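B., you asked whether I could sanity-check this one before it goes into the benchmark set. Here's the sequence:
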Amino acid sequence: MPVKIRLQRHGKKGKPFYWVVAADSRSKRDGKFLEKLGTYNPNTNPATIDLNLDSAVQWLHNGAQPTDTAKAILSYKGALLKHHLDGGVRKGALTQEQADAKLAQWLDEKAGKVDAKKQGLSKAEADAKAKAFAAEQKVNADRIAAAKQAEADAIAAATPAAEEEAPAEEAVTEATEENNEETQA
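And here's what the prediction gave me:
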């Protein structure tokens, strides 16, 4: 029975979530599988991958062929490297301790790269938030300044009008008083 290591889709529409499985190549994509090896969530940044390294390597030793995407995932997590190093141990090119040391060193380097990417993304996100906050503060300051300017203009417009109306009212009251005096005399 030809065995493939492949992805089995789960999740809802637009939000895929995959299981990494060892399955008979003749079974349906989301159908029957032999063993679940891990999960893959492409919705996070960077993508989240949980993989049982030992069982994935065991399936590779037994002749399972990974699909292209599964091969990329296995390579990313170090399963293909471990499979390769185990081949070197079987041939006598290196000891098991040397192979384990090489794998541990590679995994540490990979973890460092992933952590650096996560820190870079969080720093970029924090910088974007800081820029947005500064822009929002500037817009708010401009809005407040414009409101104060409009209020000052309204007061300035209202004040001269009141001064102009006051002399006109005084002239009207003086004219009325003169008329009253003339009618009384």
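One thing to flag: The beta strands are 3-12, 15-24, 35-41, 48-51, 65-66. Otherwise nothing jumped out at me.
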